Amino acid sequence: MRIAASPVGMSAFAALAFLFSALSARADDPPAPSDLVSAELVAETASIAAGKKLWVDLQLAIKPGWHIYWRNPGDSGLPTTIDWKLPAGFLPGSTLWPVPEHFVQNGVGNYGYAGTADLLVPITIPDGLGEAVRLEAEASWLVCADICVPGTSELSLRLPVVAHDPSPDPAAAPLFASARARLPTPAPFETRFTFGQRDFRLLVPAAALAGLRNPTAMFFPDSDSLIDAAGAPRFRSHDDGLELALPRAAGGAAAPATVNGVLTLRGEGGAERAYDISANPAPTAPSESGFAWWQALLLAFIGGVVLNAMPCVFPILSLKILSAAQQAHGHRLERAYYGLAYTAGVVASFAALGGGLLMLRAAGNTLGWGFQLQSPVFVAVLAYLLFAMGLSLSGVAEFGASLGGVGGRLAGRPRLLGTFFTGVLTTVVATPCSAPFMASALGFALIAPPLVSIGVFVALGLGLAAPYLAASLSDRWQRLLPKSGAWMDFVKQLLAFPLYGTVAWLLWVLLQEVGPGEALGSLFGLVLVGFAVWIYGKTRLARPTGRSLGTGVAATTGVAALFLAASLTPMAAGGPPARAGTQGGLNYEAFTPQRLAALRAEGKPVFVNLTAAWCVTCLVNERVALDTGAVRQAFAERGIVLLKGDWTSQNPEITQFLQQFGRSGVPLYLLYSGSGEPVVLPQILTAASVLDTVAKS
Amino acid sequence: MRASIKVLIVAAAIVSAAAIERAAAAPSGAVATVGEPAPVFSAPDIAGKAVRLGDYAGKTVVLEWTNNGCPFVGKHYNSGNMQALQQKYTAAGVVWLTIASSSPGEQGYVTPAEAKADLTRWHAAPSDYLLDPDGTLGHLYRARATPHMVVIERAGRLVYMGAIDDKPSTSLADVKTAHNYVAAALDALSAGQPVPVASTRAYGCSIKYKDE
After folding, report:
1. Residue A630 pLDDT > 90, yes or no?
2. CB distance from A693 to chain B under 8 Å?
3. How far apart are CA A155 and CA B99, in angstroms?
4. Judged by CB atoms within 8 Å, which residues 208-247 of A form the interface with B?
């Protein structure tokens, strides 16, 4: 049943707009709204029945060259609205919008319709109807070409009521068929998104593209603060499907939990599909970074060099210097071999860690840099190893050159293999620290092609080894070293204590990861390690039988300790309850992306601290910068809400959040103020730098 | 001598690494960003005088993009809303700059004489009216729809950018019930409070920029 709309009334607003324009100095007479858009209400059936649903089409015919707007209009314009005036009990459902078009002119982008548009609305019909009903609605729109003109129209439909099935309307059938053909359909596939520094990316799976040649895509988001409406879509095809990139809206909000909107896919030859999608974040970010690969390599190398100055590497590095002193007066070529063996150890272990990380991620784990320290087994075994090394330095036993390169035979020369393992150990103890530049390079590595990723890890290792390698090759540096002698025994025993310190710290990390109950076994494991080292040392000077027996007992005890460590499992998912609450004088709430989004929606300033118990850099930052009187006061004065995310154990939510900032590990500090982009604070904080950032916010 | 050259090389490497890192992290181009220093500009006013942002150092500055044919701008002038804001805040020492970025031949383009006529007809009271027919200023402040509003605090930092209020419509009646973001930002600044809402999306007519 098709009923002509009542005459299109020029609204008071339109009249004013007309007047306004006419009065202006350059009066281009704007056309009357009724000439630009004609609106009609069409019902799908010729009658209605109680309890049934009636579909109504608001049919809009738009003058060529003009357009009206979708539910998210883009940079300007207004969505068309329908204000229903229905009899009691009638309920309009939500409007179904046809697939919009993308209009861009001179840097301004819009989503809307040219030609015709049919907005479909389902109306629920109650019981207890009379003979006929009258449905009324006021439709309002803004129609624009070079200029914009608002229009409204009072529309109505009168439909007879029938007892049972409403009679079909043959005239309306083709109209509804074509209107429905223009609606997006629910996506039968899963779409993921990533929210990078600059781009919003949709990952359309290959299954969605079947039958489309050289597919292209466009995305129309429901949210107006997600993407730049004027931005042109860019595509990249890969085996998994199509990646659609659109620039993010300037000053846009933080990453949403889900993204809703309409995805259109086009193939060569005109095939086109449109889907309603609700996309979730992708588990891993596709490659997007402001770096070129060589810049990432350079950053990694310099980060590696700087890492030498960080506290984690100190105990091992001091051992290295000691062993360098032993070799100082050796043959130049020999020294070079040791330097290269050490470098090889560092580089190989970085490559292995990096490769392991990439493989685990490829297998679907959401992990980042320092992932090995999220494993309590690894932490316990590392504590055992360093404890054994410390005991060896203290003189309990002598393992030859293999541990630290100074394991006792001071008069002898460390073997090349031993030097190699010193390199490995340096890498392992270095990972809890992070140096400037490292974070960006590692963040890049996780999303780069595998070859470049491994290159970044290798560059980091080369950087870490470089100062030692250079020193071992330089004659001048060697002359600076003191002659080896009895003093070295003293220094060697002294250096055992930084190692014991490291062990104490690793045990504290272990307690955070598994809780005090679980940790007991591995603490006793430490006693077994002590026993093993002692019995090994005691039996070295015995007869061959005694020596073998000692070695056997030591090995058995050591393996028993490893068994105790291997039984460790992290606490229930999410690890220990994020260490919220008062810490020092700072009141932290537990970080979740949802909590952050909620606070941002309330317009509150937020400081986000992503940390881990094993991250030495994080702990130092908290002690020297964040938990100081002046910073506490500045946070309190500005009403900044503090959120802390604990990455000590695995937490995919935090890993994903880190990736949004191009990071693969902690620490990450963010200050959100107003509604703009957060300020990313440096990896190494001082109270002054934090205060400065807060003051500028 | 050789040692100092080495030190220089190392220092240069670290500085360049820092530069690479910063360049990658910073958004591209020097466009206006909320929370950052407002980009400086120079544009002619209707008297032909060059006006610079720096001329108003130490003062709170409001930028208002206008288009005399746009019904959304009309809503705020025909209701008297825009003039009232201009009068109230310029009296309190705020600098209010009205800006037209429409290109010649497009709706909203005004010659100096036409702009003056608009001000008289509207009884408008901005501190000055700037003409930006090539759209440089509009693009610099990411203005895409009229009215587009910007608030710059005394220290030169951009503290608000976006819509004039929270009722995207052309209905004059909505002015009374809308929450005015610009007034809220200016009141917060004079009370020494942080601006409650710093960024919204402007609503209105597309700005008719010169073809690129």
Report:
1. no
2. no
3. 40
4. 224-225, 230
